[in-house]
Design a protein that fits this description.
Chain lengths: 451, 449
C-alpha cells in the first residue's frame, strides 16, 4: 500500500514537469524597493511562484548586498549571495531622490498590486512614497514595510540588522553553553525567519483582496518575528525563571543532543515522546531502560537529573555504533535521529535534488550553478527558478516600455536627466566580464519595433 | 508618544514630512489598538489539522487560526504525544508548553482512528474543509482511506498539506518514513549546527552547536503556511485545490539557501568561525565593562564610524585593515578582533550605545559623514526584553486565560495588518473539549462514553 502511495505522489510532484505547470501568482505585479536580505526574500517568494517582481534600485549603487559577499569573494563578477536572494526579478534603477524619479515610481505603483519596502521606519512616508501616498493613487495596493522594531512604538526609528534583532529579543542568549560561549544564530536567521512571516502576511492579504477587492498596509518587524519563535515568555511566566543556554541539549526532549559516533561523525538524536523512547531503548537493546521509572515517562525523563543520566547513557551507546548503524536503527524502529549535514553534503544531496528544493540551473548570463529551489512543493502550481540576477538597470527598457508604455525617446530623456540609470564599474554591480551586454536583447529591449 | 523622538535621518524632519507622518501615525495607532471588529484574512476558511508528535504541523494550524481560520485539531482519544514534550518536565494542566503555545484559536476534537465510525467522521469533516494538514507518518492517512487521493475527488477545492521530515514523495521519503520529527534532528539534517561554535573553544565546547530556539520547527512551519496560502491564491483564481508537501528536515536549508551557495562555489563545507561572520565585521558579541554588547558594523562607512567612536582612528590607515577587512585570512581578522575586544572592554554598555546613537543622529544631518552608522546594543536576556515598554505599546505579548490554570503569556503573530489583523481568541488545552460542539455542527456520530 505505501509503495503504491509513493508512486502516486511521485506523479503529483515530478520536478521535471514543474516548468510546464501554471504559476499561482501569475499576473501579480510587485514593486520591490528593498535591500539586503529581509525585504528581498519576501519578494523572492513572490517571484518564485510567478509574480512579476520589479526590483527598483538606486542607479550605480544598487542593493548593498551586491557587494556584501563572504570573505570578499565574487563569482563571475557577482555576489553569489545576491544571486540566491534575487532570482526571477526584473532589475530597474530609478533615482528616487529626484522628483521625476518619484513620479516615475508612482506611475509604476498605479499599475502594480504590491509594494515591499525595508527602509528605516517612516522614511518612505517622509519621502511621500509611503502607504498613505500610494494608497491614494492606487487604493487596492497592498503595501508591506519591513523593519527591525516595527513602524510604531518608542524604538521604531532605531536601525536594525539580523544580529541586532537577535540581541534585543534575547535570542542571542539562547545558543551555546554559557555567557562566554554564546553564539548568534548563523546565516541571518533574524532576516530569513521574519521574511517568511512577511510572506505569510502578504499572501494572506492577497487572498483577502481576491475576496473583497481591498488592499491594506502591513507592518512586519524582525524582532517580533523572532519572539514568535521563542518559548521563553511562556516559560518565564510559568516558572519564574528564564531559559538559558543548554548546548546541544533540548530541554523539552530527553535524551537529546548531537553525539559522536564510533566512526567520528556527529549524529543528532532527540526523543520527544514516550513511544519514541521505548523504540530507542529497543534499538539500544536495553529493555531495562524502557522500564526504568526515571525514564519511562516524559515528566520524569525531563527532570534535569534524569535527563543528564539518560543523556550520558545515550552518549556512551552512540560512541559504540557507526552513524550509519544509528540512522539504520532509527529508520527501522522509528525514533528521531539524523546525521549532521554540511554545506557540501547539502549541495550534493540526491534527496533534495529529487525533491526539487535544490536545483541545478543553467542561466543565460551566468551559466551553471546549484541553487535553492522552492522550499515547499506545490503539486499544481509549483515554484521555480527562471533566471538569476542581472546588473543594475538591466531591465529598464523592458519595464518602462512594457509596463508604462514609454518610447525609446522617453527613456533616452530619462537617462539624460539621470532619472534612471545603470551599474557603475564596481564588481557585483556590473555584467560579468565575459558577457557582451551590447548584444543582449533584453537589455536593449525593442518594443517599438516589435509592434 | 507625545515626546519628540530621536530620528536618524535628515529626511525625517521638516514641516511637510511631519504632515505625511501624522497621517501615517494615525493609521498605525488605529492598527495597534485593533478593537476586534475587523476579521482575520482567513475568515470563513476551515482547516482540519490531523497531527501527531509533529510540532511544525501544530504551528501551521496555530498560525492559520491566528489569521482567522476555523481550525479543528484532531487527535486520538489518548491525546497527541506532542503534549508530552516540555521544558524540564514543567506542565500546564498536564500539557507541555510548546503544545499549549501552539493550541491558540483551535477547536480540540478526539477521534478514534482505529474505528470505522471515527474514519467516517473525519471524512465528513474533510468534505467541508478548505485546508487539511496531514502531519502523520507519510502514507498513514492514505492507508486509512482518508488521504489526498481518497478525499480530493469529492472535494475538488481541498488544499491537502502533508508535513513530515522527509516528505511524501522521493525514494528517501519512502525509505525514511518511519523517522519522526523534532527540531534538533531537523536542524542537523539541514546542516545548521555545523555553522555554529568556536573552533578555539576548550573541550567539551569545541563542537557543532545547535540553535538555542526551535529554529527548524518554526522556519519549516512558516514555510508550510506560505505554501498553503500560495495554493489558496491559486484556488481563489482557478477553483482547484492541490496537494502541498513540506519536508520539515529540509526547509531550514532550502529557504535561506546560503549553505548551497557555499557548497557549490567552494566545493567544501564551511568551518566554524566562533564570533565572526563570513561577510561582515565586526558582527558579533563583545564584552564591555559591565556585560555583553552586540556590535554590527556592516559597511566600510559603519566600520570607520565605529573606530572613530572608539577613539581608534589609528586603525584606519593600518595596511592590514585598510583595504578589505574581511579577507579570507582569519589571522589578520584575529588581530583586528583583538583590538576591538580590548577597546570595547574599556567602555560600559550604556556609554557605547549612547555614543553610537548620538553619532548616528549627528551623521544623519551631516552630508559629509554620509551613511556611517554602526549599531551597538546591549545583549539582552529575555527577562530584560519583557520589561521593554515598546512591546507593551505594540501588544507583542498576549495574556490568555486557561480555565483552572491561570494566565499564560504567548507572543503575537507579527505581521500587523491594517484590514485583517491577526487575533488571539482562546487557548484550549483539554483534549476533546469541542467534541460535542463540532459533532453537532458537522453531523458527526459520537461514541457513547
Amino acid at each position: 500500500m505505501t509503495q503504491d502511495y509513493f508512486s502516486f505522489t511521485e506523479q503529483l510532484f515530478d520536478p521535471s514537469q514543474s516548468a510546464s505547470k501554471p504559476e499561482a501568482l501569475k499576473g501579480i505585479r510587485v514593486l520591490d524597493l528593498t535591500r539586503v536580505i529581509f525585504g528581498p526574500m519576501i519578494a523572492k517568494w513572490m517571484a518564485m511562484f510567478g509574480a512579476e517582481v520589479i526590483k527598483v534600485e538606486e542607479p550605480e549603487a544598487g542593493d548593498d548586498w551586491r557587494t556584501g559577499t563572504y570573505w570578499g569573494k565574487f563569482w563571475k563578477d557577482s555576489c553569489p549571495y545576491f544571486q540566491a536572494l534575487n532570482p526571477n526579478k526584473y532589475f530597474a534603477a530609478i533615482d528616487l531622490k529626484k522628483q521625476k524619479g518619484k513620479d516615475l515610481l508612482k506611475d509604476l505603483v498605479k499599475k502594480s498590486d504590491i509594494v515591499i519596502e525595508n527602509y528605516r521606519a517612516g522614511l518612505v512616508e517622509a519621502w511621500g512614497l509611503g502607504y498613505m501616498a500610494m494608497s491614494k493613487i492606487n487604493p487596492k495596493i497592498i503595501y508591506i514595510s519591513c523593519s527591525g522594531y516595527g513602524q510604531w512604538g518608542p524604538l521604531r526609528y532605531f536601525p536594525s540588522y539580523d544580529l541586532i534583532s537577535q540581541s534585543v529579543t534575547g535570542v542571542a542568549r539562547m545558543t551555546g553553553f554559557s555567557e562566554d560561549y554564546t553564539y548568534k544564530l548563523p546565516d541571518y536567521y533574524g532576516d530569513f525567519y521574519p521574511a517568511i512571516l512577511g510572506v505569510v502576511g502578504l499572501l494572506s492579504a492577497i487572498h483577502h483582496r481576491e475576496k473583497t477587492g481591498k488592499g491594506q498596509y502591513i507592518d512586519i518587524a524582525q524582532t517580533e518575528s523572532l519572539m514568535r519563535a521563542m518559548h521563553n515568555w511562556t516559560y518565564m511566566n510559568l516558572a519564574g525563571e528564564d531559559l538559558t543556554q543548554t548546548g546541544n541539549f533540548d530541554p523539552t526532549m530527553a535524551p537529546s543532543g548531537i553525539f559522536k559516533s564510533k566512526d567520528g561523525q556527529y549524529v543528532a538524536i532527540a526523543i520527544a515522546t514516550n513511544e519514541q523512547f521505548s523504540m530507542l531503548a529497543e534499538a539500544m537493546g536495553s529493555s531495562e531502560l524502557a522500564q526504568d521509572p526515571r525514564f519511562s515517562e516524559a515528566s520524569q525523563r525531563l527532570l534535569t537529573e534524569h535527563a543528564d543520566a539518560i543523556n550520558t547513557i545515550l552518549e556512551k551507546w552512540a560512541r559504540s555504533r557507526t552513524a550509519e548503524e544509528i540512522i539504520g536503527l532509527a529508520r527501522e524502529k522509528g525514533f528521531p535521529a539524523s546525521a549532521l549535514m554540511d554545506d557540501w553534503k547539502l549541495t550534493q544531496d540526491p534527496w533534495r535534488k529529487e525533491r526539487g528544493s535544490v536545483v541545478e540551473f543553467e542561466d543565460d548570463m551566468y551559466g551553471k550553478g546549484t541553487w535553492a529551489g522552492p522550499p515547499v512543493s506545490l503539486q499544481k502550481s509549483p515554484g521555480r527558478i527562471k533566471h538569476l540576477t542581472r546588473p543594475i538597470g538591466y531591465h529598464n527598457r523592458y519595464v518602462f516600455k512594457e509596463v508604462l508604455g514609454l518610447s525609446e525617446k522617453d527613456i533616452r530623456e530619462l537617462e539624460r536627466q539621470h532619472i534612471i540609470g545603470y551599474w557603475d564599474n564596481r564588481v557585483g554591480k556590473r555584467p560579468p566580464s565575459y558577457y557582451d551586454i551590447a548584444e543582449d536583447e533584453m537589455f536593449n529591449y525593442k518594443r517599438d519595433e516589435r509592434t | 508618544m507625545k515626546k519628540k523622538q530621536q530620528v536618524f535621518s535628515k529626511h525625517m524632519t521638516g514641516k511637510k514630512t511631519q504632515e505625511h507622518l501624522e497621517q501615517f501615525n494615525n493609521l498605525l495607532a488605529e492598527m495597534m489598538s485593533a478593537t476586534g471588529a475587523k476579521k482575520g484574512s482567513l475568515d470563513q476558511i476551515r482547516v482540519l489539522e490531523i497531527s501527531y508528535a509533529n510540532f511544525p504541523g501544530l504551528v501551521c494550524g496555530a498560525m492559520l487560526g491566528e489569521m482567522g481560520a476555523t481550525v479543528i485539531k484532531i487527535e486520538p482519544p489518548e491525546g497527541d504525544a506532542a503534549r508530552e514534550a516540555t521544558y524540564y518536565g514543567r506542565y500546564i494542566n498536564g500539557v507541555g508548553l510548546p503544545f499549549v503555545i501552539e493550541s491558540r484559536n483551535k477547536l480540540s476534537v478526539t477521534i478514534d482512528f482505529n474505528d470505522e465510525e471515527g474514519i467516517a467522521n473525519i471524512k465528513k469533516l474533510a468534505e467541508k474543509a478548505d485546508i487539511l494538514i496531514d502531519a502523520m507518518k507519510p502514507g498513514h492517512l492514505d492507508e486509512l482511506g482518508i488521504g489526498y487521493r481518497q478525499l480530493s475527488p469529492s472535494n475538488k477545492g481541498l488544499i491537502y498539506v502533508s508535513v513530515s521530515p522527509y516528505g511524501h514523495y522521493t525514494k528517501k521519503g519512502e525509505e525514511f518514513r518511519n523517522i519522526p520529527d523534532t527540531d534538533l534532528t531537523a536542524q542537523s539534517e539541514s546542516g545548521y549546527p555545523a555553522l555554529s561554535g568556536n573552533p578555539k573553544a576548550p573541550e567539551p565546547y569545541n563542537v557543532p552547536v545547535k540553535a538555542g530556539i526551535w529554529a527548524a520547527t518554526y522556519m519549516s512551519a512558516a514555510v508550510g503556511v506560505a505554501g498553503i496560502l500560495t495554493a489558496l491564491i491559486h484556488r481563489d483564481r482557478t477553483g482547484e485545490g492541490q496537494m502541498v508537501d513540506l519536508a520539515t528536515y529540509d526547509a531550514l536549508c532550502s529557504w535561506p539557501g546560503f549553505s548551497l551557495v557555499w557548497g557549490f562555489t567552494t566545493e567544501r563545507p564551511r568551518t566554524r568561525v566562533g564570533n565572526y561572520d563570513w561577510c561582515l565585521f565586526p558582527y558579533g558579541y563583545y564584552k564591555a565593562k559591565d556585560g555583553y554588547v552586540t556590535v554590527s558594523a556592516a559597511t566600510d562607512a559603519d566600520f570607520r564610524s565605529l573606530i572613530k567612536i572608539l577613539g581608534r582612528w589609528d586603525l584606519e590607515d593600518d595596511w592590514r585593515f585598510l583595504f578589505d577587512r574581511i579577507a579570507d585570512d582569519p589571522e589578520k581578522l584575529d588581530e583586528l578582533e583583538a583590538e576591538m575586544k580590548k577597546e570595547i572592554a574599556t567602555h560600559t554598555q550604556e556609554e557605547l550605545t549612547q555614543k553610537t546613537l548620538a553619532y548616528g543622529a549627528k551623521a544623519a544631518r551631516d552630508p559629509l559623514r554620509s551613511k556611517g552608522f554602526p549599531m551597538v546594543v546591549k545583549t539582552l536576556k529575555p527577562e530584560e526584553v519583557m520589561k521593554e515598554q515598546h512591546w507593551k505599546i505594540r501588544k507583542s505579548f498576549l495574556e490568555c486565560e486557561i480555565p483552572d490554570d491561570g494566565t499564560v503569556i504567548i507572543p503575537a503573530l507579527p505581521p500587523r495588518m491594517s484590514e485583517t489583523p491577526a487575533k488571539m481568541e482562546w487557548l484550549k488545552v483539554k483534549k476533546g473539549e469541542d467534541n460535542e460542539k463540532v459533532a453537532e455542527e458537522y453531523g458527526l456520530k459520537l461514541k457513547k462514553k
